[in-house]
Amino acid sequence: MVTQGKAQIRPVGNVDDKNTGGLGCFGWLLVFLSMLFVVATFPLTIFFCIKIVKEYERAVIFRLGQIIDKKPKGPGLFFVLPCTDSCVKVDLRTVSFDIPPQELLTKDSVTVSVDGVVYFSIYCPISSVANVSNANTSTRLLAQTTLRNVLGTKNLSELLSDREGISHSMQEALDEATHAWGIKVERVEIKDVKLPQQLQRAMAAEAEASREARAKIIAAEGEMNASRALKEASLVIAESPSALQLRYLQTLSTIAAEKNSTIVFPLPIDILQHFLQRK
To answer: Which phi and psi (to 5°) does residue 193 adopt?
Structure first.
């Protein structure tokens, strides 16, 4: 965690134990001799004593193998002893890397290939140097293992629909595991989920059949509603014979508007009923 250019240090593991022993008499003697050597060879050794770290960097100083001052140096200019001190620079900027595609088996026994991306940063330079040999590489390997472990407990439907929840679970697991390394996992995202070709065709066929079934149900409901409306309309027309004549006139008006060269003469149904009664 970086606040206004200063690293907030949280002691992790046994870093403090390494600083409790001190340098000892022989160690301080070597430090004194190193200082005398710097003074005797001044100003030639000044180029080996001055170190500069940038705003986004911190330097962890080891003096005779022990971390001095229990905190990193920087940003800016500082001095080291060329014979007894060694400097390790740590980058505090957010680092992103891709998780290679992982072949895994879901909870419902479906083989999928999943890849993702992880964003992390170093909040404790001392822990990232003293507690792990290579913080970046270790985080990358741990992210691959965490991806397989988390997705192995999910069904295929959950994997396809709940990516945000899976990303959050992976972030919590990675953050907890890398806390001892001085690393803060900021974000984890699932990029792509690749399914086998046979499974893709089966899912496409299932989705198509489901859509066809819904379309048939909707069409049947439409036919049923239309038949009920026609039944109600026929009952209304049967109660008033003049309503049928008005319907004929409306149909004639509609046809004449589309094809004005065609003339249709409606034949009243009452005339046909008169002839049928005579027979």
So the answer is: -125, 115
Q: 60 - beta bridge partners?
A: 88
Three-state SS string over 70-139 comes to CCCECCEEEECCCCCEEEEEEECCCEEEEEEEEEEECCCCCEEEEEEEEEEEECCHHHHHHCCCCHHHHH
Which of helix, strand or coil describes residue 196? coil
In 3D space, the residue among 139, 147, 144 whose CA is nearest the CA of residue 96 turns out to be 139
Alpha carbon separation from 162 to 21, 32, 104, 158 (Å, rounded): 51, 62, 17, 5
The DSSP secondary-structure symbol of 208 reads H
Q: Does the N-terminal peptide bond of residue 43 adopt cis geometry, omega within 30 degrees of 0?
A: yes
Contacts of 76 (CB under 8 A, 6+ apart): 52, 53
pLDDT in tens, 166-211: 889 999 999 999 999 999 999 999 888 888 777 767 777 777 888 8
Q: Judge contact between 142 and 195, C-beta under 8 A.
A: no
